[in-house]
Amino acid sequence: MRTAASIKSRPLRATLHLSALRHNLAIARQHAPNSRILAVIKANAYGHGMLRAARALETADGFAVLNLSEAIHLRESGFRQFILLLEGIFSADELPELARHQIGCVIHATWQADAILDAGLAPEIPVWLKLNTGMNRLGLQVGDFESVLGRLQNAGARLTLMTHFSRADEPGGTCAQLARFEGMTSALALPRSMANSAALLSAPTTHADWVRPGIMLYGASPLDAPKYLNLLKPAMTLSSEIISIQSIQAGETVGYGDTFIAPCEMRVGTVACGYADGYPRHAPSGTPVLVYPQGAGRGCKADKSATTTLGGQRTRLIGRVSMDMLSVDLTNLPDARIGSPVTLWGQGLPVEEVAQAAGTISYELLCALAARVPVVEDEDG
Ligand SMILES: *Cc1c(COP(=O)(O)O)cnc(C)c1O
Q: Ligand 1, residues 196, 218, 232, 361: which to mutate, most atoms within 8 A of Cβ?
C-alpha cells in the first residue's frame, strides 16, 4: 500500500543547493579576505530558510537578522556566532533578552541609545552604531553622532560603527558615502562595517572590519556585469512540470484577460506554478522559462550532470500568470510533453533574468517564495 507521502503530487519544488551557499560564502571570503563576514539571513534567508542557511553558512563570523525572535531561535538552535539585529530594538522591553542571549543590536536613533543607557546594559550588548551618510533611511545624523558615541563609550559599550550604501550597485556609487563615513570615523579606533554584496564584490575600499553580504550568498548577483553571473551559484532552483498541453489556432488567446493572442498555430504548455507560489504575476509574456523536453532536469538523480543544463531549452511565458498555473510557448519544442520538467529560475536560468523581465529584482522573487512550495535540500548540487 502506498503512503500519502509516496504518491506523486503537484510537481512544483524549490530545491535548495546547500553547497552553492557554501561556495558563495567562499567567494565572499576571497573578495574580502581581511574582513569578517556577517552573513545576512533576514527575511527567512531571502526565502531559503533561516536555519537551513545558517547551518550551510556556519563558518561565517556572524549572522544578521531583523527580529529578536529570529535571533533567539538561532541561539536556541545552537548557533554561537555573533548575531546582529539589523534595525536594533523596536522597544526597550527587548533589551534584557538581548543581554541574556548575547545578541548585538544596531543603534540607528538616539532613543535606542537612551534606552540602552537607561537600562544600564551598554556594556552587556554589542552595539553597532549606524551613521546616516546619505541613504536617509536609518542612522544618526552627523550632528547627533559625536554626543551619542561619547555617552555610549563612557558607559563602556562595545562599539562597531556602520553605514549602508544606497547605490553600491552602480560604478562609483559608494564614493560619496564612503568619504562621508571616513570623515566621521577614520580618527576613531573602532571596528567599522559598510559593505553589502555589491560593495563587497566591486568596492574593496569599503571592506573595513566587517562585510555584510546578503544576496550574493544566495547566488544572485547584485551587479549587472555578466562576470558575476558565473562566479556565484544559484542556491535555489524553482522547478515544476508541464501538466497540460493545448494546440491553438492563430487568433486564439491564452489565459485570463486574453492578453496573449496567438499570431499563428501554437502549442501551449501549462505549468504547475502560479503567483500563489511566489511567481510574479506581473511577469509579462516573453519572460524566460526553461523546459526540458526530453525529461532530464528536476529529480533525475541518476545522471546529475544531465540535470542542470543538458537538454534544457529556453522558451517564454505567454499570457497572464494565474494563481496556480502559468502558460509557456511550446511551439518550437515538439518533444515537450505532459510531465516535461520546467525550471522557473535557478540552475540554468538565473533568477536575475526572470526578475529583470518582470521589472523587479532577484531579492523580491527569492523572498516571495510561498510557504506552500515544498522544499527539497540538495546537499551536493
Ligand atoms: C539587507 C542588508 C544587507 C545585505 O544586502 P545585500 O544587497 O543583500 O548584500 C547589508 N546591510 C544591511 C544593513 C542590510 O539591511
A: 196
Strands 236-248 and 210-211: unpaired
Is the minimum distance from the CB of 131 to ligand 1 under 6 angstroms?
no
CB 107 within 8 A of CB 160: no
Q: Angle of helix 110-118 relative to helix 142-154, nearest 10 degrees?
A: 10
The CATH architecture one would assign to domain 32-221 is Alpha-Beta Barrel (3.20)
Q: Where are the domains of the chain?
A: 32-221, 236-378
**What is the Cα–Cα distance from 185 to 159, expressed in whole angstroms?**
12
Return the CATH architecture of domain 236-378.
Answer: Beta Barrel (2.40)
> Which of 24, 25, 40, when mutated, tests ligand 1's pocket best, judged by the most ligand atoms within 8 Å of its CB?
40
- CATH topology match: 32-221 vs 236-378: no
Amino acid at 299: G
Q: How many Å lie between the centroid of ligand 1 and the Cα of residue 40?
A: 6
Helix (H, G, I), strand (E, B) or coil at 255: coil
pLDDT tens sequence for the chain (381 residues): 667 777 889 999 999 999 999 999 999 999 999 999 999 999 999 999 999 999 999 999 999 999 999 999 999 999 999 999 999 999 999 999 999 999 999 999 999 999 999 999 999 999 999 999 999 999 999 999 999 999 999 999 999 999 999 999 999 999 999 999 999 999 999 999 999 999 999 999 999 999 999 999 999 999 987 778 789 999 999 999 999 999 999 999 999 999 999 999 999 999 999 999 999 999 999 999 999 998 755 444 444 443 444 689 999 999 999 999 999 999 999 999 999 999 999 999 999 999 999 999 999 999 999 999 999 999 875
